[in-house]
Each structure stands twice: as C-alpha cells, then as structure tokens.
Design brief:
The complex is a heterodimer of chains A (about 500) and B (about 325). With about 500 residues, chain A is α/β, with parallel strands linked by helices. Helix content of chain A is about 35%, strand content about 20%. Chain A has helices spanning about 35-45, 65-75, 90-95, 100, 110-125, 140-155, 170-185, 200-205, 225-235, 290-295, 325-330, 340-345, 350-355, 375-390, 405-420, 435-450, 460-465, 490-500, and strands spanning about 5, 20, 25-30, 55, 60, 75-80, 160-165, 190-195, 205-210, 215-220, 255-260, 270-275, 280-285, 305-310, 315-320, 335, 420-425, 455, 470-475, 480, 485. In chain A, strand 17, helix 16 and strand 18 (about 455) form a beta-alpha-beta unit. In chain A, helix 14 crosses helix 15 (about 405-420). The longest helix of chain A has 16 residues, at about 170-185. With about 325 residues, chain B is an all-alpha fold. Chain B has a single domain (about 35-160, about 175-330), classed as ABC transporter involved in vitamin B12 uptake, BtuC. Chain B has 13 helices and two strands; from the N terminus they run ααααααβααααβααα. Chain B has helices at about 20-45, 45-50, 55-80, 85-100, 105-130, 135-155, 185-205, 205-215, 215-220, 225-255, 265-275, 285-305, 310-335, and strands at about 160, 255. A two-stranded antiparallel sheet of chain B has the order 1-2. In chain B, helix 1 (about 20-45) runs parallel beside helix 12, helix 8 (about 205-215) crosses helix 10 and helix 11 runs parallel beside helix 13 (about 310-335). The longest helix of chain B has 27 residues, at about 225-255. Chain B starts with 19 loop residues before the first helix and ends with a helix.
Chain lengths: ~500, ~325
C-alpha cells in the first residue's frame, strides 16, 4: 500500500494546509481551539468542499461529494458527539445502511452473516466481550466509541479520523481506546488523531502536524520533538514559563477539614489550607477528589468529620459542616465544577448572567430589594471579559456559542466576580487549549499571591506540580499527607495515587 | 473585583459580531410579525367589522382571563416547569369568588378568597414539586383533577348564581366596562401586571434566578440560588395569576361556574409558547406571551366575524402553534450556527 497524500487550501477557516498521512501511522493533528482542525477534518470527510487545493487518496484524485461518498472511498470520521442510535443493537448500528450489500436479495438481512462480520470486527479491535445483540444505549461512552470504530472497520476504512476521542470517556476507557488505535495502526490503517492533550499524542502519535490560524505550521516525528517545541508551534511564540510560580508568603489557616467522610466517598480526608497558597490534590479519577470538594462546598452530604472556615477574613475558624452552597458563597467560598456542560454553566444564558449569577445585586441601594441593573451586569462582565481574555462578541452573547476554553474562563470569571477568599477548583483546565491554560495558570498564581486560598484538583501530574505550593494525593477516598510541591516527583505522585501513601494523613 | 495583570488572549475564535444589531432588532420585532399577519388576513377577510374600535375593545376584554393566566405560566415555563392545573384553578377561583359572595362576603373579601384559592393551589403544586420531587407534569396533572373536583364540590355541581347586587363590582358595572378610559379597567390591570412582571423577569434577582433554574438547575444550585424556595414561589406566582384570572372570569360570567375554563391551560401554554418561550426552560418573555394571547384571541374573534365554523378555528389554532414554534426553532438554529 502506498502512502496517502492530501493537499488542501483556502477554505474560510483554512488558509493553505498541507498534510500528508501515511498508511499504518497514527498522525496527530494538533492546534488550539479554532485553529481549523475540525474544518480540515470536515473537508477530509466530505462534509465541506474545499475552495481551493486538492486531495489525493492512494495516488488518485480524491474529491468526495459528501460524507457517504467519503465513507465509500474509505475515509471514516469518528466525531466527538457520537452518531449512534441508542435504541438499536450494536449489530444494527454497525450494519446500518449496509444491510442490503451484506444480506441477500429483496432487502432481507442474513442474520448469521452480518453477525459474523460484526463479531469479527469487534474481535479485531480486541473487544470480543461486546456482544452484537447489546443495545447501544446501555453501553458506556467508551464502548459506544468502539462501536463507531468497528463500523469504520466493517466498511474497510483506510483512514480513520478520531476527533478528540478522549474528551467524553473515563480513564480506564482511554487506555482501552489507545489499544484499539494501536491495533488499527498495525492493520495498516491511517489514523488521524485530533487532540490537544500533548501527553496523549506523545503516547500514541508517530508523526504530527500542527495547525495555527488555518495554516499548517509544522510537521514531523513526535519522538524527535519536545513538548515545548510543540507548544511553541501551536502558540506561535515562545512560552517563557507555562507555570508561573511567584514567591509568596503563606498566611493564616482559613479552612480546616478534619476526618471528613461522605457516602461513599471520600473515606477520610484532613487538611489545613492557608491563605495565599495553592494546594493541589492528585490521584486517579474516581478516588474521591471531586467528592471531597463537593462535601466541603455543601453539594454532597458529610457523613462524619468537620469542616471549619474563617468566615470573616482573619477571623477564627467556625464550624460550617454541611452548610449549603448558598451559605458558603456568602462566607466567600467558591466552587468550580469539573462538569462545565451539565453543572458549571447555564449554557443557554448570556455570559453576563453566568459570570455574575452568584452576586447579581449590589448589597446596597436598590440591590437590597433584589433589583438588578443590567447595565451594571454588562459592565462587570465586560471587565472580566477583558481581564481574562474571553473571546466573545459581547457580554450578552449566549455562553454555548463560546469555545471550551472561553467557557471555562466564564466559569472562572464568576468566581472572580464573587471575590472569593477560598476557591475549590475541580480540574480548572479541563478541555481547555494550551493558550487558555497558560492564562488560567497565571490567574491562579495571581489570586494566590493576593491572599486567596485555593484547593485545585488536577489529574495531569506536571500541571499539579506546576501550579501547586503543596500537593496531597488521594487514594481510594483517603487523602494522603500534603508535602511541598518541590518534595514530590511525578513518579511518587503516581505511586501514591495507585497504591496509596505509607503515612497517615495528618495535615 | 479587579484583576490587574494583562492576560492577553491568544486563541482565535470568530463569533458573529457583525449583524448583532440587526439580529437584536429582528429578535425584538419578530414576535409582532405573527400578530401582524393575523391582523392583515382578517382585515382582508372581514374588512368592515374586524378592525372596528368596538371589536378591538372586545378583544382586549376577552384577553384578560387567558392573559392573566399566561403571565403566571410564563414564569413556570421559563423555570423549566409546566402547570397543567391552571384551567381548573381558574374555575376553582371563579367558583370560590361566587361562593363567598353568596355566603355574604364583601367585595374585597370575595376577591381575596378567589385569588387566595389560586395561591393555595400554587403553593401545593410548588411544595409537591420541591419536597416530594415529583415531576411538575404529574403534580399539576393531579392538581388539574383536584381543583376541578373542589370547585364542583363547593358549588354542589351547580353554577353558583349570585345576587346581582352583591356581585355588582365584579360584573358589568365598571370592571369590564369597555368605555372606561379606552378599554376596561380589567384590561388595564392585565397590561399593568404584564409590564410589572416583564420588569421582574429582566431586572430582579427573582427573574434572573427563574431563567437560571430553567437553563440549568445544577448551575443555579451551585451559584447559591435558593432553588427550592424559588420553585415554590414560581408556582405560587402562577397560582396567584390563575386566581386573579378566575376572579376576572367570574366578572365576565356573573356566576361561579365550576365547569368553566376547561382546557384553558392548553390555550395558555400555547400563548406562552407562541410568545417564544421554550418548554425546556431558560427562555421566554412576557411581551411575547401577551402577543401570543392577543394572537389567539384575534384568531377566534376573526373567525367568528368571518363566520368560520368552530372546527376551522381549532385547526387554525393548532397550525399557528406548530408554525410559531417551528419558526422560532429555525431562527434559533440559524443564530447558533
């Protein structure tokens, strides 16, 4: 099989892209949100026609008339939002639209033969445990993704495009997905892997192409390029320091958690958080980190233990165990949800409302009667928009129209507007592109330098160590002893996350 | 809150900035388009009678009951809920008003009883939705039966005929007098209530919380919105307006009729939806609702004037609902692209 070559140019969002994808390789396509990755892939999969430029597939001109034509030619696209029918079985979904070709005449479906094909495809992907008769609606997100890939396989796809495949699935499923991608590669399929997680690309990618502002700005072998070089290509400038860590002095204790347990998570967590420090919490997904933050903030019941907070700045600690989110916001504690879409933001409402919802009215004047001045909301939102660099058309733009990174900044803007003394952040940079990440790191650093106490849950270990002053690791619901970030190595954090700490948690 | 550093932006996304002004004007005016279409059609079909002052005044008076009910419903629908019981609650309030007058209550007391019965129903709805965590559809479906039954029980299954002397304030005398300053006081009351509620929805924490709950209840909770209290208050508001609508209905009928307003909840919900509200919550406006109410009433009067049969009206109303909502969703799809 010869190499697969494609050439593009000049679609609105694409300003001359050259890319070459070879059979049997995992080609990582990287770039910030809005760099043109999705558009490029839509051109490839036939959803858009290019205005200029040309594409070649196996040495012959490739100009698909639409997604179906592209599929027939062997280019399959696995989108972020999966396109399966939940009420049909795995087999029916895989064979959807192909019944005729596989079955006999008269539109009859030959059950035994299709079932064999489906079973074979799943086995080739290393997942014979998914039975063809299962309803797709009962499968996990990762398994559904696999069914999509299996469908591509049944169609004899030569090029499989995965668009941010790990954004909707859990940790364990990511590992299985990687295994599937490797199997595709070994079967001489060309895999285009879109992601902005450099660690994924490092683990999986053979070669890469970086897109920026609709142009391809770099291409090469992943193993011969450093993360720093990749980030530089994505941003188009040098990154002086991704993780700023200003010198700062830690203040008085503002939050004290003692043996907090919820049902079922966390099991046992004790911690003392001081003003002006960032305390990072590492650990595996599902180890109870989110539940700990939610217990503190009152989104989840505390079974036993105590949460104490300095409700007035510089005051003594008061027992706030089990108080509501409303009460906690009043005493200056803010919470950032890891689930932006379902919990963190009211996506159908404008930016101005989302950013100010916790503190709509001024406490004095007309605000006492619950009156809200919309012009004031817009002014606040505009100031936040500017200081956080939120890209939007105005304060009344609907939040759902923003990119993921900008949405995350809106969620952070809310905490800024509320002027919190204590921040509980669950994955503050989830689904955010590298440029926005750097901004968020700087913002956190600055807040801490001004005396805000921050607890941040981070799954990505370099980030955890980069932003935190102290780090503690959670394992099966038990929080380990915090140590200064300099005293940890990445390896130690992973070890403690996997097997637990040796010492008892005494903060 | 001030952040001093210059966190300059690096990502490049293009969002529809240009044409924002045009879009805003379109969004503001588009609800009127449907209303205008209905007016134009009927002024062609029944030119001499339709646009006459008399007819417009009549329309204005007729909108009062549905209009008041729809104002309350707008809050519920924006918050992502639904209230199927309003028709029955209106009948209950109408019956209670007649019943209390019949028992010798004074005008203000009867008014309070009528409106109060609505508030009570709303309170029960709200408490059941929040404390028992039953879906609003089910709770209010139950209330639809309960309120209707109560109305029939109170009245002994017969319309309550009230001494005209005792009910003079409510009926004919001046409350529904079309010649009182352009239109009847009841119509002015409805318009005033609409303006007030429009203001509440836009410019108070109560209003914005209502939108927040409807858009994403989880987020509202996270942002310290007292979700349960708000929901109870929202259903109470809806009950209050249903109660007031019932009092107005009593004024129009002059009797406490327990079988009145059957199915009116659907007309009310239709008006709110035609006005641009979304049944999934987080979207809607009072102005739209009022336009929806006028559109439906104009349609009915127009058909009557034109001499169209009842079934034609029903088909037309059904079509209008579907068309209005599909235009709205098309518009939405286009703006979100």
């Amino acid at each position: 099989m010869t190499g697969v070559m494609k050439r593009f140019g000049g679609v609105v969002a694409l300003d001359g892209v050259d890319i070459e994808i070879r059979a049997g390789e995992v080609h990582a396509l990287i770039g910030e949100n809005g760099a043109g990755k999705s558009t490029l892939m839509k051109v490839l999969s036939g959803a858009h026609a290019p205005d200029a430029g040309s594409m070649q597939l196996d040495g012959s001109i490739y100009a698909p008339s639409g997604p179906n034509d592209a599929r027939r030619r062997g280019v399959a696209m696995i989108y972020q939002e999966l396109t399966l029918a939940p009420d049909l079985t795995v087999e029916q979904n895989i064979m959807l639209g192909r019944e005729k070709r596989m079955g006999g005449r008269f539109g009859l479906v030959r059950a035994s033969r299709t079932r064999e094909t489906v079973r074979d495809a799943l086995a080739r992907l290393g997942r014979p445990d998914i039975t063809p008769g299962t309803l797709v609606g009962t499968l996990s997100a990762g398994e559904r993704q696999l069914v999509e890939i299996a469908r591509a396989l049944v169609e004899n796809a030569r090029v499989v495009v995965l668009d941010e495949p790990t954004s909707s699935i859990g940790r364990q499923e990511i590992a299985r997905l990687f295994e599937v991608v490797r199997r595709l590669r070994s079967r001489n399929v060309a895999v285009v892997y879109i992601s902005h997680f450099l660690e994924e690309i490092r683990e999986l990618g053979d070669r890469f192409t970086v897109l920026r502002d609709g142009r391809s700005v770099g291409t090469g072998s992943v193993s011969e390029t450093s993360n720093g070089q990749l980030v530089e290509m994505m941003l188009g400038r040098r990154v002086e320091q991704l993780y700023p860590n200003s010198e700062r002095s830690t203040g008085e204790p503002v939050l004290e958690i003692k043996d907090v347990a919820g049902s079922p998570m966390p099991q046992r967590a004790s911690i003392t958080l001081n003003a002006g420090e960032i305390l990072g919490i590492g650990g595996l997904v599902g180890s109870g980190r989110s539940e700990l933050l939610r217990s503190i903030f009152g989104l989840q019941k505390v079974r036993s233990g105590q949460v104490r907070l300095a409700t007035i700045a510089g005051g003594s600690l008061v027992d706030i165990t089990g108080s509501s989110p409303r009460a906690n916001l009043r005493s200056g504690t803010g919470f950032l949800s890891e689930d932006r879409k379902n919990e963190g933001l009211a996506l159908r409402l404008p930016i101005a409302i989302n950013a100010t919802l916790t503190r709509l009215a001024e406490p004095t004047g007309a605000g006492r009667f619950g009156l809200v001045r919309r012009s004031a909301l817009a002014r606040h939102a505009d100031a936040l928009r500017r200081s956080l660099g939120i890209q939007s058309s105005g304060p009344w733009q609907t939040t759902s129209e923003l990119s993921g990174g900008n949405q995350q900044k809106v969620a952070l803007a809310r905490l800024m507007h509320h002027d919190c003394d204590v921040l509980l952040l669950d994955e503050p940079t989830r689904g955010v592109d590298v440029g926005s990440k750097a901004q968020i790191y700087r913002l956190l650093d600055e807040l801490a330098s001004r005396g805000t106490a921050i607890i941040a849950v981070c799954s990505y270990v370099p980030e955890l160590l980069g932003i935190s002053d102290r780090v503690a690791v959670m394992h099966r619901g038990v929080l380990g002893t915090p140590r200064r970030a300099e005293d940890w190595t990445e390896r130690e954090i992973l070890e403690e996350a996997l097997v637990g700490g040796s010492t008892e948690a005494v903060a | 809150m001030n952040v001093k550093s210059d966190l300059s932006s690096t990502s490049t996304i293009r969002s529809g900035g240009e044409g924002g002004c045009l879009r805003a004007a379109y969004q503001l005016l588009s609800p009127f388009i449907g209303l205008l279409v209905v007016i134009v059609i009927f002024s062609i079909l029944a030119p001499e009678s339709f646009l006459s002052v008399r007819n417009m005044e009549k329309v204005a008076v007729q909108t009062v009951v549905v209009g008041l009910g729809a104002i309350g419903m707008t809050f519920v629908i924006i918050s992502g809920g639904i209230d199927l019981s309003v028709g029955s609650v209106i009948a209950l309030a109408c019956t209670v008003t007649g019943w209390s007058l019949d028992k010798g209550a004074s005008t203000p007391v009867a008014l309070l009883c009528g409106a109060g019965s609505g508030v009570l129903c709303g309170l029960v709805n709200g408490l059941a939705v929040t404390l028992l965590r039953i879906a609003p559809f089910i709770v209010t479906l139950g209330m639809l039966g309960i309120a209707r039954g109560l109305a029939k029980g109170i009245s002994g299954q017969q319309p309550i005929r009230v001494d005209p002397e005792a009910s003079s304030w409510f009926s004919s005398d001046w409350l529904l007098d079309r010649d009182w300053f352009l239109t009847a006081p009841a119509t002015w009351f409805m318009i005033g209530a609409a303006l007030f509620c429009g203001f509440v929805l836009r410019n108070t924490a109560f209003g914005i919380y209502t939108f927040a709950i409807g858009s994403n209840e989880q987020t509202a909770r996270l942002c310290g919105v007292p979700v349960r209290t708000m929901k109870v208050l929202i259903y109470v508001t809806c009950g209050l307006f249903a109660g007031l609508a019932g009092v107005a209905l009593f004024g129009r009928l002059g009797i406490g009729d327990p079988t009145a307003a059957a199915g009116m909840e659907l007309e009310i919900i239709a008006a709110v939806v035609i006005g641009g509200a979304s049944l999934t919550g987080g979207k809607g406006r009072i102005l739209g609702t009022i336009i929806g109410v006028f559109m439906l009433t104009l349609l009915v009067t127009g058909c009557n004037l034109y001499g169209a049969a009842n079934y034609v009206q029903e088909i037309l109303i059904g079509l209008i609902i579907v068309i209005a909502v599909s235009i709205d969703s098309l518009r939405h799809r286009r703006t979100s692209d």
